[in-house]
Amino acid sequence: MNILLCCNAGMSTSLLVKKMEQAANDKGLEAKIWAVSADEVSRHIDQADVLLLGPQVRYKLTEMKKEGEARGIPVDVISTVDYGTLNGNNVLEFALRLKK
Amino acid sequence: MNSKRGDRAIYATAGDSVKRLDLIYQKFLDFGLGKKISASELAEMLGLSRANVSSDLNKLWKAGKIEKADGRPTLFYTKQTNETLYNTETALDRLAKGNKSLLTPIEQAKAAVLYPPRGMHCLILGETGVGKSGFAGLIHEFSIDIGRLDKDAPFVVFNCADYANNPQLLYSQLFGVKKGAYTGAENDRRGLVEKADGGILFLDEVHRLPAEGQEIFFTFMDKGTFRRVGETEVERTAQVQIISATTENPESSLLKTFIRRIPMVIKLPSLVERGMEERFGILINIFREEAFRLGREIQISASAIHAFLSYHCPNNIGQLKTDIQLTCASAYADFISLKKKQLQVSVQDLPHHVKQGLLLAKERKAALEELVGKEHKSFVVQPTQDSISIERETEDTANSVYEKIEQKIQELRNQGVSEEELEFDIENYFTRFIKGVNKRINKEDMSRIIDPIIVNLVEEIVRYAEARLGKILSQKVIFGLALHIQTSKERLAHGKQIINPHINSVRIKYKKEFAVALECVRMIEEAILMDLPIDEAGYLTMFFVLDDESLQQERETVGVLVITHGSGGATAMVDVTNRLLVTDYAKAIDLPLEEEYMKVLEQAIKLAREVGSAAGLLLLVDMGSLLGFGEIIEKEVGIPVMVIPMVSTPHVIEATRKAMLGHTLEDVYRDVSSLSSLTVLQNEEQPKQEPAQELAPALAIVAACLSGEGSALFLKRMLENRLRYDNQLVEIIPLQLIDKAQARNQLKQIKNERKVLCIVSNYMLDKDLRCYGMDDVLNGEALQDIQQMIDLEEAFMKMVETLGEHLTMVDSRRVLGDVRACMGRMEERLHNVLVFDTRIGAYLHVCCLIDRLKAGLPTVDYAEKESFLAENRRLYSIVRHELQLIEDQYEISIREDDVCFIMNFFLHNKTLV
């Protein structure tokens, strides 16, 4: 399971990545989770199973969805509250639901 | 008595001589430049004796006023042009202006100075603080002004009291010491008498001059000769004019000898003897000195002036001066601490004993007003200007009017006008008037009660106000206004005050209405030929304002619905009630026994929607099965409902009457139930005693209702039902608004303990807090906003926790707070309020950025930075600028690339894709 996170400059998302990794670990889930800035998404998207956007780059959703659809990768925005509270577990579950 | 008469004689001659001198000199000035005249010619011309004229001419010549030509008979001429006697106005002349009571002392002083050959010693009598030393100083100045003394002639001051216990030292101070005169006298030393040679020696508190040595002094005064202490052979001389001063009664034995030796006794009047007009001038002068000292203009309220003019001031000008200085210091403190925008002196700044002057001021109000001027509300003393400018109340400078209003309230308070007298809490007052009028009195009744003049006046006011405010006043406001004006008129006619304690807040809150009200006050004054206090404008303002609010309140009265079994029972009771109260307020449902329960309930709900309001519904029923209706209606309609069982006609009447007057549901319920001896249902609206929480939630939403705790509770419940929140973090607090001041205090306390997210209320309680109208909440419009605020705050609180686990270099709470403040400033300057999603992201982003930079970790480069910056220059400069503080606080340096990412939050600040 490869989860790509996209945010503004990868600044805060890296924290969320850590939290999600922890959550995955607890679940005994094998997952690669990493964060990149919006500009870099095109270079990483092919390795991802799911693409999640930080709420602050919600404006990129249409653009990213196109890219995702072309490759059959689900794309969505992380819930603001989960993001703000760095709720790794919720975001991980969200990613898992998207994938299904 | 003899000596007294003698003094007067001397004074008279001396005074005459001064006048003669003036006359002669004036003649010269009239002649103009160069005209030469002899003493005898002049004496003949003026009808004076040649000897006198000759002596005066010599005096004038000595004073350098006129010139002498060589030859016989001596001819005199002037080089002066036609000015006053002494080419500039002398110090004493300046004092004479506006100080009529000092004319005699001034004339005496002039005479004493001009008395040949070297002036006359004089004694100044007067109470403590009347200005004896100052007067002596002026005599010295005068002597220089007229050329009687050299420009640098000494003025030596000696206070006899300083050495009263040591005559030896006193004399050595005055006359000097010969070397070796006594142990410690190691050098020859000059005394003050020698130092004063060619000038004036001022001996203050001369009655303290020890009796045993007075003779030495008298010798010096008579002959101008003296010896230093220890000297025997040499007799020294000094030309000194001695001015002595004392507070003692001149009849006292000590002074009797003294007065015999001193021909000129000048008595300075006490402050009381000076009279009000002079006192006014004196105190303004002192204020001016203070203004000069502070380098700013001082504004003094008329009441403060009244107090200063009236208070008991036993130590005269000296005390007045001290008191004014104290007052200015207090006002200055307020000014410096930014409590006041200007250096203003009003009654509350005055020392207590000065304030008491206002009690005396009442007794001589007319005199004070004549002096100070009725229309002058305050006086402005400039630090530079010689004359004081009087600030007049003008129609268009509304601001100064407001300040005066404020001051007036304060001053009235300080005058001891009790809070009872400052009667009428404005809200209660208005609720009473407006609500009552509409419901109880119909138009015909009105014209019977109200004076036709006032009815016409009110029509005029309404026309004017409607035009200016661009709205239509409701009929009931018009009646309320009429009733109010009538009452005010009666109160004034009975000499009662009309005071509006809220006038200041009223005028701030409702600027436009207040301006209109001021004009209306003028109209009323013209119509009823009475002066109205400005407070009246505050009340009128409320009439104009409350019209809108009152409409809402009308809807907010408690509905009354009667349901009984049996055909016509309820209707009969309601009909009686409505007929008696001339209304159709109460509603009825008859419940025929055969009627289906559900059908009745449907009907009841439908009716409840019509007659009920946010204030609630009072249900009056006759039998048990209907008791359950209350709960169902409450749920269905969403308004609080209370049920009175075992209804009777008196219940219905009482309920309807109370409800119409705007009583709260609880009040109506309580009053109606107390009518009946039967037990009533448990009060459903009682707030359940919540178990004391160990830690109150940090966030609060305040729900405030005017109509009482019940509706606030209702509002609280509704918010609780419709908002999602974590009750560990957020609490909704009901607040009763009956007493606004109390409500404000409660709110303040809540604010101290926790963060208040917003207020739900129809009244602006706190302008710093976001306030949602009840309507907006009830119809759901505001709920989304409030929800978002809660979400944000909750996220924010949780962010602190989560960030705390991750940030390595900085404290999460602190950094989040700083970032929040920083972003807030950006939002404000950019007029771009971040939407919720963006905001959370932005906070996190910047917090992490700070942590990262602090740790010395690299940050991401921004692609196409240059073109991005070129496109968004203004945004960049604002964001950069606001980040400066963060950089300073955390000692980090934020790169341009980092700034670009932050700018993006503002550029893409949208909720939806």
Automatic annotation (TrEMBL), chain A:
Annotated ranges, domain PTS EIIB type-3: 1-100
Gene Ontology BP annotations: phosphoenolpyruvate-dependent sugar phosphotransferase system
PROSITE patterns: PTS_EIIB_TYPE_3 (PS51100)
CDD domains assigned to the protein according to its UniProt record, in alphabetical order: PTS_IIB_chitobiose_lichenan (cd05564)
Gene3D superfamilies on file: 3.40.50.2300
Entry keyword annotation includes Zinc: no
Keyword Translocase appears in the UniProt entry: no
Molecular functions per Gene Ontology: kinase activity; protein-N(PI)-phosphohistidine-sugar phosphotransferase activity
Residues the record lists as Phosphocysteine modifications: C7
Keywords: Kinase, Phosphoprotein, Phosphotransferase system, Sugar transport, Transferase, Transport
Alphabetized InterPro entries for the sequence: PTS_EIIB-like_sf, PTS_EIIB_2/3, PTS_EIIB_3, PTS_sugar-specific_EIIB
PANTHER family: PTS SYSTEM N,N'-DIACETYLCHITOBIOSE-SPECIFIC EIIB COMPONENT
Name used for this protein in its record: PTS system, cellobiose-specific IIB component
